[in-house]
Amino acid sequence: MTSYHKTMNSIKAQFATITASAMVLLASVGGCASYQIGNQSLYPSHIKTVHVPVFDSLSFRRNLGEQLSEAVIKEIETKTPYKVVGSPAQADSVLTCKIIQDRRGMILQDWYNDPRQMQISLRVQVSWVDRQGDVLRESQPIVILPATSTLVMATSILTPEVGQSGATAQQLAMQRAAEQIVGMMEMPW
What we know:
The chain is an alpha/beta fold.
């Protein structure tokens, strides 16, 4: 290997090192806003605790409000920096929900009018306010609902032929609604 090749390899190595360090520097300080790492940057920083009362339900099915409350509390504890507390006096904010619709609709039926596939849907009215009564989650105006609430809808598909029960489909719809409610708690971009 000649001295010319050694010099060129040395220059290429220096150029690669300078380019890599410049890219790291630009990635760490570049951008339009200051960035934070972790899920703390996704949620309002002045809120540390949330009170989640047992949700109301307009459905005739028993324990839907309790099941959705439990699912939302689990989602908050696992996916947000917030701590769920037992009383509104200890909380920085209160998340209230009401199940306003619980529906099962047939999608497919067989020749004997037995259901082959059904859809289970939940409509939930959500309101998240802080200690002063200010709405933390801005909602689009919905004619039927109060201005301080947001509407969440979750569905799941029930297929009895493959061994799925109504309870598992209902649980899946609850989980999807809980994910949407907790996702609603993130700050807008």
